[in-house]
Automatic annotation (TrEMBL):
Molecular function GO labels: protein serine/threonine phosphatase activity
UniProt cross-references to InterPro entries, sorted A to Z: Bact_Sigma-Reg, CheY-like_superfamily, PPM-type-like_dom_sf, PPM-type_phosphatase-like_dom, Sig_transdc_resp-reg_receiver
Species of provenance: Kutzneria chonburiensis
4-aspartylphosphate: residues carrying this PTM: D49
Domain of life from the UniProt record: Bacteria
Name of the protein: PP2C family protein-serine/threonine phosphatase
Record keywords, A-Z: Hydrolase, Phosphoprotein
Boundaries of every Response regulatory domain copy: 1-114
CDD domains: REC
Pfam families for the chain: Response_reg, SpoIIE
Length: 372
């Protein structure tokens, strides 16, 4: 406990009262508010006399509270100044005691009460902050992971999202799917670099903009250019970039156009087995080079096809062999042993089984399957 008391007699009385009841309290004394501020924080409790030479009124209490950290603050008032003790509670003190009306038991009980009340206040505040943060995270999650706009004729779509171990630092992984006026299915999956509310908010912005551009009928190659322009204007600092994969499946589900902007290669699954799409047409991530261009990879889709899109959180887990990661090749091997029905659930289980530790990064997975 830090005792802030300029009167030698009162200081001796406080220590005597604590000794009287056998209290195991380590007391450090400061004679002025200035001396006390130099010693803080680092105490469980501060016992503060409101009548100090370098503080008037409740000014000393305010200065102590600013530096007290997690310490409880208990004030001492004169016999004829109890009203100021009540005012001290309103300012932020945990309790007050009146000089001359305190014995050892009451003093010890007051100290313990103040410390426990302070801890309860801290716990309540932390719970409230965590609840508010969880609510904000949930709102951002809904923005990042919307309800796809599909029709009965659309390819089957299965999606999963899993946060990394930094649960309260939501990342910028996002995905969306929209059916165009001609019946084609447009799908996007992306990942804003970094973690936190700013990155998540930017992911929401890009996802909503993508949906609006697709519904407005903008050509696929122009959508990426527009998203890059938006990213550059909306990002909160230089250097923020976004990897992105965009696919358009024709209405008859026999072909697709895939754009890669620095994103991991999707995995095509058909009778020939799973394999990553070639990266010869892959472009830079959004936000790296303003003059960047992206070219579509045209795919012919055989009956019974599946196309797996994902963010890099799925493939960055360590396999336990040194620093080796699962990577795309390891993911393809896992896909090969999963059943087509229930593939996403089996695959996530297989990834967890074949990697060590909890995933640091968020991951998003979208599986498109032939519905003909």
């Amino acid at each position: 406990m830090l005792l802030v008391e300029d009167d030698d007699g009162d200081a001796v009385l406080v220590t005597a009262l604590l000794d009287e009841v056998g209290a195991t309290v380590d007391v450090t004394r400061a004679r002025t508010v200035r001396d006390a501020v130099g010693l803080l924080p680092g105490f469980d409790c501060v016992l503060l006399d409101l009548g100090l030479p370098d503080a008037s009124g409740l000014d000393g209490l305010r200065r102590i509270l600013e530096q007290a950290g997690q310490a409880a603050v208990l004030v001492l008032t004169g016999h004829d100044d109890e009203e100021r003790g009540i005012q001290a509670l309103a300012v932020g003190a945990q309790d007050y005691l009146v000089k001359g009306q305190v014995d050892g038991s009451l003093l010890l009980r007051g100290i313990r009460y103040a410390v426990e009340r302070r801890r309860a206040e801290d716990t309540h505040r932390q719970l409230r902050e965590e609840r508010l943060l969880a609510q904000e995270t949930a709102r951002l999650e809904r923005g990042l992971l919307p309800t796809p706009l599909l029709t009965e004729q659309s390819p089957r779509l299965t999606s999963r999202y899993r946060p990394g171990q930094r649960r309260m630092q939501l990342g910028g992984d996002f995905f969306d799917a929209v059916t165009g006026p001609d019946g084609s299915l447009h799908v996007v999956i992306g990942d804003v670099c970094g973690h936190g509310p700013d990155e998540a908010a930017l992911g929401v912005c890009l996802r909503i903009a993508w949906r609006a551009l697709v519904l407005a009928g903008q050509a696929d190659d122009q959508v990426l250019s527009t998203l890059q322009e938006l990213l550059i204007h909306e990002r909160h600092r230089e250097g923020i970039f976004t990897t992105l994969c965009m696919a358009t499946v024709a209405a008859d589900q026999s072909s697709a156009a895939v754009y890669l902007a620095g994103h991991p290669s999707p995995i095509l699954i058909d009778d020939a087995g799973p394999r990553p799409l070639p990266r010869d047409r892959a472009g830079l991530p959004l936000g790296v080079l303003t003059e960047a261009k992206w070219t579509a990879l045209e795919l012919a889709l055989e009956p019974g096809w599946s196309l797996l899109l994902y963010t890099d959180g799925l493939i960055e887990g360590r396999t336990g062999v040194g620093h080796e990661r699962l990577n795309v090749e390891g993911l393809v091997d896992l896909v090969a042993v999963c059943h087509r029905d229930g593939l996403v659930g089996e695959l996530l289980t297989a990834v967890e089984r074949n990697t060590v530790g909890q995933p640091d990064d968020d991951l998003a997975v979208v599986l498109l399957q032939d519905s003909r």
